[in-house]
Write a structure and sequence with these properties.
Helix 3 runs antiparallel to helix 5, helix 3 runs parallel beside helix 9 and helix 8 packs antiparallel against helix 9. The longest helix is centred in the C-terminal third of the chain and has 36 residues. A hairpin with a 2-residue loop joins strand 2 and strand 3. This protein folds into 2 domains: 205 residues; 56 residues, no CATH class. It has 9 helices and 5 strands; from the N terminus they run αααααβββαββααα.
Length: 275
């Protein structure tokens, strides 16, 4: 029964199905991040989003799409294509070009996270003492970096609970001290997570580059695995923090990315074993 639909009696490749299902879920998350970024930019850039601010407003979306491209290129290099095909000039040029574009947007997205982190520290003390007096003034309350609540008679008394209010200059966004501290912490985790991933893929890229030149030694492999273990531990810590103080989407997405790149690590391990 388990082999139903498999060609010539061969068992279904359940591991491959599972792996590419994870890749598909990451693609769905890209759409979720776009909707989230779109909703957030309406408040953070109420005066209109300039082209120069695209990366700040859509950092998560651009970052996710770039990572998907990079993930697929690593999958091609470490699993789907043979070493002989990878040495083909056209294939090599195509893969390297797509990876270079992805790396560019990943670094650009890191800049966007840093810019957003800086913006979260740009809030200034507000003269507003009672939110309920501001109903009808188009103010929005920042609950999280991507979640904003329109102030109305039903929620104005519950949002701040008497805490000091802060306002982001040039916008209609306000937050109290506790929500602002949470948002600043989450923004810092975004920067830490993005920086960590950049370091991981640099090591992965070095791993692939050295392997294709047949210069990889056992000592190099051990050192790279040790460093990557530390870096993945930090990523796991970020995922746990998002699970506690962030959103489920952030936690879910972080977990999927760690799982997805564990497949790439497994590909590389098998690649080394067959060398």
């Amino acid at each position: 029964m388990l082999d139903a639909g498999a060609p010539s009696g061969r068992p279904l490749p359940w591991f491959q199905i599972f792996k590419y299902s994870v890749f598909g879920l990451l693609m769905l998350n890209a759409g979720q991040f776009f909707l989230q970024d779109y909703a957030a930019t309406r408040h953070l850039f109420s005066g209109g989003l300039q082209w120069s601010q695209i990366i700040e407003g859509y950092a998560a979306t651009i970052d996710t799409v770039a990572w998907l491209i990079l993930l697929l290129m690593f999958e091609l290099e470490t699993s789907l294509l043979s070493d002989e095909r990878l040495h083909n000039s056209w294939v090599k040029w195509s893969v390297n070009t797509l990876k270079a574009i992805a790396y560019g947007f990943i670094v650009y997205s890191l800049y966007g996270y840093i810019t957003k982190y800086t913006a979260m520290y740009s809030f200034e003390l507000s003269t507003i003492e009672n939110l309920c007096d501001q109903i009808g003034q188009q103010l929005v309350f920042m609950v999280s970096p991507d979640d904003f609540a329109e102030i109305n008679i039903q929620n104005c008394a519950e949002l701040t609970r008497g805490e000091t209010l802060f306002r982001l200059p040039g916008t209609d966004v306000v937050a109290d001290s506790s929500h602002l501290a949470l948002v600043q912490n989450l923004a810092l985790v975004d920067v830490t997570n993005a920086s960590d991933w950049v370091l991981i893929v640099l090591i992965l890229q070095a791993d692939v580059w050295i392997k294709l030149r047949h210069q990889l030694t056992h000592t190099m492999v051990k050192v790279m695995r040790f460093i990557k273990t530390l870096l993945y531990s930090f990523l796991f810590g970020c995922a746990i923090y998002w699970g506690i103080d962030g959103t489920f989407l952030d936690f879910w997405d972080a977990s999927l990315w760690i799982l997805a790149f564990s497949f790439i690590e497994l590909n590389i391990f098998k690649w080394h074993e067959t060398a």
